Amino acid sequence: MSSDVRFTDFKSDKQPTWCPGCGDFGTMNGMMKALANTGNDPDNTFVVAGIGCSGKIGTYMHSYALHGVHGRALPVGTGVKLANPDLEVMVAGGDGDGYSIGAGHFIHAVRRNVDMTYCVMDNRIYGLTKGQASPTSREDFETSTTPEGPKQPPVNPLALALSAGGSFIAQSFSTDAQRHAEIVQKAIEHDGFGFVNVFSPCVTFNDVDTYDYFRDSIVDLDDEDHDPTDRDAAKDKILDADKEYQGILYQDEESVPYSDLHGLDSNMADIPDGAPEGAMDLVREFY
Amino acid sequence: MPDDLNWAIGGEAGDGIDSTGKIFAQALSRAGRHVFTSKDFASRIRGGYTAYKIRSSTDRVESVVDRLDILVALTERTIDENLDELHDGSVIIYDGERTEMEDIEIPGDMTGLSVPLQRLAEEAGGAIMQNIVALGAACEVTNFPIENLDSALEKKFGNKGESIVSNNKDAARKGQEFVAEEFDHEFDYDLDTTDNDYVLLNGDEAIGMGAIAAGCRFYAGYPITPATDVMEYLTGRIEQFGGEVVQAEDELSAINMALGAARAGARSMTATSGPGIDLMTETFGLVATSETPLVIADVMRSGPSTGMPTKQEQGDLNMTLYGGHGEIPRFVVAPTNVGECFQKTVEAFNLAEKYQTPVFLLADLSMAVTEQTFDPEVFDMDAVEIDRGKVVDDDEVEAWTDERDRFQPHFSTADGISPRALPGTENAAHMSTGLEHNALGRRTEDTDVRIEQVDKRNRKVETAQNEEDWSPREFGNPESDNLVISWGSNEGAMREALDYLDEEDIDVRFLSVPYIFPRPDLSDDIEAADEVIVVECNESGQFADILEHDALTRVKRVNKYNGIRFKADELAEEIEAKLQSEEVEA
Ligand SMILES: Cc1ncc(C[n+]2csc(CCOP(=O)(O)OP(=O)(O)O)c2C)c(N)n1
Ligand code: SF4
Questions:
Q1: Running DSSP on this structure, what letter comes out for residue B186?
Q2: Under DSSP, is residue B262 helix (H, G, I), strand (E, B) or coil?
Q3: Which residues pair with B57 in a beta bridge?
Q4: A282/B384 CB distance under 8 A
Q5: pLDDT, tens digit, for every residue of A211-260?
Q6: Lower CB count within 10 Å: N or C terminus of chain B?
Q7: pTM of the shown model
């Protein structure tokens, strides 16, 4: 790990194929800045991505990475981090990836509290499959598969995370570069599962949850004197359906990550050339 | 067969059948006798008939047979359930003082020993020890030195305190003495002991032990019968070696966690059974295309759907061989006995890392829940070799970078095996993906690159086909015109069936195949034989289909799919009938 790492070191030489103006650019830049600011470098960073426009992030970043199957990025990240605690693990995906097909994994990743960072690029639509409703789409949002709107309430990912025992719950807006990077950085620094729902507008398929919409409606928690260690205050904010908040909604300062609780501190890649010492005891047990 | 004893204890689930059976199996093993166990159990926690059966001999035993010599019947139903296997001369131990057992009828020329199990247990310190009283009684019936039972009781209850151990020993003595004093009877059974020291374990335990021996440090799984024992074995043990077991939220998660750990460089595995394999299928292709070494154990049970969770079947061969969309290079290794579960697990990890592929370890319920004795050398830790394959270190990275200094994790080599850089390796950061990709791991739809990468991945399998030994094991008469082939846990029953057939002057060559893919080329063997029979525990003959295809010929099949494993004597009869039938000529 070198101190002279710059955020551009995390950029791959591959040009993103995201639509010009896509919110995912800002989300990624902020993640790279946060990684560099926290003293990481590409050789010790592992990025796990889901499937979707958002999932392409692993291709455009330079680090160790896996672009997996739809919705399963969090379990992969869990495996990576538990096997090698020295790695900085970042997991990224879309709202469909994380809250629909991967919703079960989301809840369990939150409660497992493995020390990694999860950024969901929430555009409230399915981008890659060209504009169907996502679990965060509004109830009346008309799409190709929901011509009259989904007619069901959107998932509140922050509430899911809080109820599952989340130890770090935040929200950011990809285009507010400084603030977004700062929030992701806090998530990385958090001892445990750092969850950031990032508003990353889809300029091609979502004409409701646009940059303008977010710019006009976002309320920054820093302007509200919000105390992120106060779980009840966090709950009130999270359940407030009328506002879009930006900032750290909740952080458990006592959070103990999974690896600490389970005493995992060594790199599991290091194994002996033969059966480990003491392996004969395993046989003796069966005498 | 005077020394070959078939013993069982049966009752209601929840009666402690399993642990009692295991204690007796342990006692026999400690007396230097071979043991082979089987279980009849229903898919419920309390209530429902359940039995633990032991076959024991001073010679090796490899299977169950249709015979029961001594039965500890805790319920009347236990006798009904086993009527077919009981014979004149069988001894039934039961508690005639219990009202529901008062007027049970002991069939035919069998000997019924009414032993007040509960009363004697209470005298020894608690009714809970009634099964131990029965074990003491069984010792007397078989002239078996009760000290061996003492030693098994010490092992079982040692950590619960001295008084528990001595109460149990006392309970066993009471059972023994009661039989000696109350029954004026010469029993047919007389169990020899030997000086051998055997270990006694089941297939799931052997898989878990193999995994630790092979350096597996990460296991993620989701409970499912009959694979859960692998996870339970590893839990509490793998940690001692710096590893971790994670109970995932489902099988999709389990295999992806295991995949993540493998990408981080750990030797990693998951185990499941049919329904779980279905869920994991999605990720098979990702494991293969990202060229991640991963061991996936499928401990088969009866399907389809939820099927018969506690019954035997070998129905997932096609699933592990073909499961997943697209075409997935993979290995399928199928251990044929409990000892091999250990060895093949070690081998599976080496194959996975050498060839950077998914390796399916195809085990089955019969083997997984069967406790069997072995010479400890079968689990020889000194013989374990670890081959991590083409892992490159910091200094070797440069040899695998392109003109722009980018590491090429999917470089197309002659043997198809690419360099592998574990995260943390300097200047080798790279992405892997389930998308088709180029040597750098980047997505491509270039037709030439696509073909190059598909060929490259398949070349690994070709390399393995040439470099590794995929031979079957051979038994019986090598010159015989009658060829029997089987895979998985049928080996034991078939080996013993050879002896029965021999008595009928039927001569058989038997090949037991532990590799499904790659597999040995048996075309010549099939060609050379007059009669070819493939034995497997499924309805359609999945392995027979493959062999017919390989050898472009038809084979006869012996299939069993009622949920019970093959028994040696039954199998011998079926083979004999098949050899005489015209069936396949068409
Ligand atoms: C198992 C499976 N089902 C469906 C798909 C098709 N698919 C690809 S991306 C996607 C949705 C992506 O939406 P989201 O996660 O919101 O990401 P976005 O593209 O909006 O960034 C779907 C359904 C798939 N790849 N795999
Ligand atoms: S479709 Fe939407 S989410 Fe996908 S790249 Fe274009 S703008 Fe971004």
A1: -
A2: helix
A3: B34
A4: no
A5: 999 999 999 999 999 999 999 999 999 999 899 999 999 999 999 999 99
A6: C
A7: 0.96
By most ligand atoms within 8 Å of CB, the mutation choice from A126, A132, A144, A202 for ligand 1 is A126
Looking up tokens 């019954």, which residue turns up?
B311
Query: Could you identify the atom of ligand 2 that is nearest to the CA of residue A24?
Result: 8
Interface predicted TM-score of the whole assembly (ipTM), two decimals:
0.97
C-alpha distances in Å from residue B503, one per residue of B483, B566, B569: 17, 19, 12
Question: Looking at the complex, does the CB of residue A90 fall below 8 Å from at least one CB of chain B?
Answer: no
**Chain A residues whose beta carbon lies within 8 Å of the beta carbon of residue B433:** 58-59, 66-68
**Dihedral sign, CA of A138, A139, A142, A146?**
positive
Peptide bond into A201 cis (omega under 30): no
Q: Decide: A204 in ligand 2 pocket, CB within 6 A.
A: yes
B531-536/B49-57 β-pairing? unpaired
**Please, which residues 501-540 of chain B have a Cβ atom closer than 8 Å to chain A?**
none
The closest residue, in CA terms, to atom 1 on ligand 2 is: A127
CA of A208 to the centre of ligand 2 (A): 14
| A-interface mutation test, from B229, B241, B410, most A Cβ less than 10 A away | B241
Is A53 a pocket residue for ligand 2 (Cβ < 6 Å)? Answer: yes
**How far, CA to CA in Å, does A117 sit from each of A6, A73, A77, A193, B147?**
19, 12, 9, 6, 59
Print pLDDT tens along chain B (586 aa): 447 899 999 999 888 999 999 999 999 999 999 999 998 887 776 678 999 999 999 999 989 888 999 999 999 999 999 999 999 999 999 999 998 888 888 988 899 999 999 999 999 999 999 999 999 999 999 999 999 999 999 999 999 999 999 999 999 999 999 999 999 878 889 999 999 999 999 999 999 999 999 999 999 999 999 999 999 999 999 999 999 999 999 999 999 999 999 999 999 999 999 999 999 999 999 999 999 999 999 999 999 999 999 999 999 999 999 999 999 999 999 999 999 999 999 999 999 999 999 999 999 999 999 999 999 999 999 999 999 999 999 999 999 999 999 999 999 999 999 999 999 999 999 999 999 999 999 999 999 999 999 999 999 999 999 999 999 999 999 999 999 999 999 999 999 999 999 999 999 999 999 999 999 999 999 999 999 999 999 999 999 999 999 999 999 999 999 999 999 999 999 999 999 998 765 4
Mutate to test the pocket of ligand 1, among A18, A25, A51, A206 (most ligand atoms within 8 A of CB): A51
Residues 191-250, chain A: which have Cβ within 8 Å of B?
A: none
Which of A198, A203, A211 maximizes ligand 2 atoms within 8 Å of its Cβ, making it the mutation to test the pocket? A203
In contact, A190 and A251? CB cutoff 8 Å: yes
Taking CA–CA distances from B435, the nearest residue in chain A reads A67
Residues of B in contact with A81 (CB under 8 A): 260, 264
Instruction: Determine how β-strand B473-476 pairs with β-strand B509-513.
Output: antiparallel
Would you call A271 and B262 a contact, using CB atoms and an 8 Å cutoff? no
A57 within ligand 2 shell (Cβ under 6 A): no
b/e code B393-416 from CB counts within 10 Å (16+ = b):
eeeebeebbeeeebbbbbbbbeeb
* Closest by Cα among B45, B560, B568 to B311: B560
Instruction: Find where tokens 């869990």 sit.
Output: A78
SS (H, E, C) A138-188: CCCCCCCCCCCCCCCCCCCHHHHHHHCCCCEEEEEECCCHHHHHHHHHHHH
From the CA of A123, give the closest atom in ligand 1.
20
- Taking CB atoms within 8 Å and a gap of at least 24, the contacts of B159-164 are B163/B125
The greatest distance separating any two alpha carbons of chain A, rounded to the nearest whole angstrom, comes to 72
The ligand minimizing its distance to the Cα of A203 is 2
Distance from CA of A90 to the nearest CA of B (A): 12
